[in-house]
Amino acid sequence: MEKLTFYTNPRSRGRIVRWMLEETGAAYDTAIMNYGGNIKSPEYLPINPMGKVPAIKHCGTVVTEVIGICAYLADQFPDQQLAPMVDSPQRGSYYRWLFFAAGPLEMAMTATSYNWDINETNVQAVGCGYISDTVNTLELALNKSPFCALLI
Ligand SMILES: N[C@@H](CCC(=O)N[C@@H](CS)C(=O)NCC(=O)O)C(=O)O
Questions:
Q1: Ligand 1: distance of its center to the CA of 66 in Å?
Q2: What's the rounded Cα separation, in Å, for the pair 106 and 43?
């Protein structure tokens, strides 16, 4: 089987994927992509036309997006039991919180970092709502269990 290649930069969301890769126990090569350098190169853009990391290449398939990569790896290495069974109701919670992380949580973190103006004129269209909506929702889930992706 082709060895997995992990494209990343140490100061990036790639750290989340590296943690997941270590959980799988899979052997992988790491390709460090430099900001303002080879990350926008003709060699890398066919891997991710966004010119961003992280990305992985596994058995000829490229996967980008942190949450997509983590979900893919959980499915590819089922012996590690990193995701609920496909036919389990827990799979619903797993999807819910994975997509919550990729959607509202990611947006709320960026909005906070860059002081985006979320107010009464746009909040209904903004996927994370007010920052407090996202934070309170996550807090409610984590008050029930330290592992919200496994909540029913
Ligand atoms: N939605 C993407 C975000 C990827 C992203 O923005 N990566 C940043 C580092 S954390 C990047 O590669 N920036 C380099 C650039 O845009 O030049 C994901 O979840 O993987």
A1: 9
A2: 28
Q: CB of 15 closer than 6 A to ligand 1?
A: no
pTM exceeds 0.85: yes
Bridge-based pairing state of the strands 4-8 and 61-64: unpaired
Name the residue at shortest CA distance from atom 10 of ligand 1: 12
Q: Which of 34, 41, 52 to mutate to test the pocket of ligand 1 (most atoms within 8 A of CB)?
A: 52
Which is nearest to 74 in space by CA: 55, 110, 98?
Answer: 98
Hey, what domains does the chain have and what are their CATH numbers?
Answer: 4-80 (3.40.30.10), 90-150 (no CATH)
Q: What is the CA radius of gyration of the chain?
A: 17
Q: How many CA atoms lie within 13 A of 35 on its CB side?
A: 4
CA distance 52 to 12: 9
* pLDDT, tens only, 124-146: 999 999 999 999 999 999 998 88
pLDDT digit string (tens) for 99-127? Answer: 999 999 999 999 999 999 999 999 999 99
